[in-house]
Amino acid sequence: MKLRFLGTAAAEGIPALWCSCEYCRKAFELGGKDFRHRTGYLLDNDTIIDFGPDFFSQSLTYGIDLTQIKRVLITHLHEDHLSPVEFLFRKGNGFSQTENFIDMISSPETFRHILKVTGEDLETLKINPLRTYGGEWIGSGDMQIMGIPADHAAGAWAMIYLIKRDNKILLIAHDTGDLPENSWDMLKGIKLSAAVLECTCGLASPDLRRGHLGFNETLRFRDRLAELGCITENTGIFATHFSHNAHALHNDLVNAFAPHKIETAYDGLEITF
Description:
With about 270 residues, the chain is α/β, with parallel strands linked by helices. The chain has one domain: 4-Layer Sandwich (Metallo-beta-lactamase, Chain A). About 20% of the residues lie in helices and about 25% in strands. The protein is built from six helices and 14 strands. The chain has helices at about 20-30, 55-60, 110-120, 180-185, 215-225, 250-255; strands at about 1-5, 40-45, 45-50, 70-75, 100-105, 125-130, 135-140, 145-150, 160-165, 170-175, 195-200, 235-240, 265, 270. The strands form two sheets. Strands 6-5-4-3-2-1-14 form a seven-stranded mixed sheet. Strands 7-8-9-10-11-12-13 form a seven-stranded mixed sheet. The longest helix is centred in the last third of the chain and has 13 residues, at about 215-225.
């Protein structure tokens, strides 16, 4: 599988919208890997993970052909991960021209949110809903997806995802704190080819473990995966979903994570595993 990081920031982006903090000022000066769009991913050129407010720009930057997209996974309904209005353009009738349905995998609450915002039914939007409550493998073409309940905000119905294709398994785990025990049970013994872990609060709040993770808790999350037999020395581990409130520029994060054999993701990073 091939994974492209389209964005690696939390809700405000980096430099954060409207922000005058020292880290945003430094990021603005440095540019490059210190510029971070809101978090999202492209997997194997046919699968999108999260569809936030930066996706249109990301699609142009990375040459994403949306006519080839077969499925979209939505982790939760917060605005930085889901922009429902963008799916209105799938309805035709003077909007975009598309005949193909896409699979969408998410919680039932996410679909209710899309219907509420757009005022349209899913068939009109050419969306085939694959609802997950967590813990079961769902088929979409040659891909298997398992949603696992996350520890995030009340009412967000956040999921992390296992994605299986061609005997490879990817874990996408942003917007979560330490998982509930029943969610850890769902991961037990799953052999991961790669794992993408969140570190929203970085170096500023390293011990945060509820709703999001700080640096120390990202390490602890990785260690728990190892204890459960999910990762080995051959599993690629990547940290993402950084807030400007993490008080760390890209090189600060690289220097912190490198001794622990975790790679700091940046916008545009592409990995193959």
